[in-house]
Amino acid sequence: MLHFRSLKLSALLAGMIFVSGSMSVIPATAAEAVEVAQADIGMFVDRRGRRVYYDRRTDRIVAIEEPDGRRALFPGDRQPAAALGEIDPDYFPPPPPPAEEIAPVPRRVERAPLQAPSEPGGRRFRSLEELLEDRGVATSPEPDPVPAPAPQAEPLPETRTAAIPRTDPLPKVDADIVAKLQVLLDRKGVSPGVIDGRMGSNVQKALDSYRTITGRVVDPANEIEIDAELELSGGDAFTDYTITPEDVAGPFIPSVPEDYAEKAKLEALSFTSPLELLAEKFHMDQDYLVKLNPGADFNQPGTTIRVAATGEELAGTVVRIEADKTREQVRAYDETGALIAAYPATIGSSATPSPSGTHTVERIAVNPNYTYNPKINFVQGDNRDILTIAPGPNGPVGSIWIALSKPTYGIHGTPEPSRIGKTNSNGCVRLTNWDAAELADMVSQGVTVEFLD
């Protein structure tokens, strides 16, 4: 049957008039035969079970095949029943009316809907869908494609750092207003590093932590708002201080040598001047202290100078510390999980990276000496021997050493407070001397220290 049907279609495509007991075709003139021969024939089954053949190019129906062997183009175009062999061999049914011209059904409109095709004179082209509906042929709409599920980003692992908000980029602000803000932050235990009247990353980190601790947002450019916050925390940002004999008594060293072998020759790594001592005492940058007190003699007892009113040292019990390498900040938490202090920090370098993971506090040393051993840590200059460097605020680890359970690593002070958060360290966690001293008073052996990469 399949072979017979393909023969009939081949005859149809050749433009021949083919008549059988099961198929009727549209009569074709010579011109029409050429047109049909070039056609792309499609087929569907209507609801009566008939096979309907049509030209895909013009959408013209070219033949209908009856399922029971009768032939018809449209209902009513049948030859009267007759006995077998009595059919007039010259009989052919009357030609059907001209097929209606149809337009293809649009598949899908991607942008603006298209207007129905038309020709001059107002003649309307009927769509294939309309024509098939009139003739009882069931059609099914093309299903909409199932949209692919939207890609889901993998959730980032939650860390406690997420609780620290980020402030907007800091504006340009007068140095005196910035210095007030730095004093406010220092009082609240969110250290800006040195008080120097400069807006920078250390101030921004401190503002973020201030918001976490207090729940308040401070506008760094609003002096009235800053003054109001200062009033709540102890009053004016600056106060007068009279230099004492102890401030200038020393001992002082002329300078701090870079070479560790030269450092090891000194009896102490003391301050180099009363100015340096006073600047560290009030958490200030030396140059800013001089700028704030033009013409002042810092070597003379009895001299009254203007200094930062940093207030009392923070008190509390720290049970956990985070050393955030990305933000270059150390954060301290109490037993409730609340943030109680935050300090800018220098944490390792690419050449001498800091540890990873979680460690614990082993011991605390105040004003420690320093053992240089190039075999187990870094090599400084041409020094290949083990050296012992005397204690002092200008020693390699400053005036505080908080040793960690990982050998040779710790949290410590610095001889250069103005460079905290702006340079590299030799693998340890470096704070200003005053921040390291404040933290040391709040920790004890066994406190966890988690390094965040």
Provide an overview of this structure:
With 453 residues, the chain is an alpha+beta fold. It has three domains: 2-109 and 117-134, no CATH class; 162-308, no CATH class; 320-452, L,D-transpeptidase catalytic domain-like (Beta Barrel), CATH 2.40.440.10. Helices cover 21% and strands 18% of the residues. The protein is built from eleven helices and 19 strands. A nine-stranded mixed beta sheet has the order 11-10-9-19-13-16-17-18-12, sandwiched between helices. It has a four-stranded antiparallel beta sheet with strand order 1-4-3-2, with helices on one face. It has a two-stranded parallel sheet with strand order 5-6. Strand 16 (400-404) and strand 17 form a beta hairpin. Helix 4 packs parallel to helix 6. The longest helix is centred in the middle third of the chain and has 14 residues, at 201-214. The two termini are 76 Å apart. The model is unreliable at 1-37, 69-87, 100-125 and 139-159 (pLDDT under 50).
Share in β-strands: 15-25%
Number of domains: 3
What's the overall geometry?
Answer: elongated
Are there runs of 5+ residues with pLDDT below 50, and where? 1-37, 69-87, 100-125, 139-159
Terminal residue distance: 76 Å
Strand line-up in the sheet with most strands: 11-10-9-19-13-16-17-18-12
Major sheet attributes: 9 strands, mixed
Overall helicity? 10-25%
Please report the number of helical segments: 11
Number of strand segments: 19
Decide which structural class fits the backbone: alpha+beta
Question: What string, H for helix and E for strand, traces the elements in order?
Answer: HEHEEEEEHHHHEHHHHEEEEEEEEEEEHE
Evaluate the radius of gyration.
Answer: 46 Å
Q: How would you classify the quaternary structure?
A: single chain
Could you tell me the mean pLDDT?
78
GO cellular component, one term: extracellular region
Active site: 412, 428
InterPro entries: LD-transpeptidase, LD_TPept_cat_dom, Transpep_catalytic_dom
Pathway: Cell wall biogenesis; peptidoglycan biosynthesis
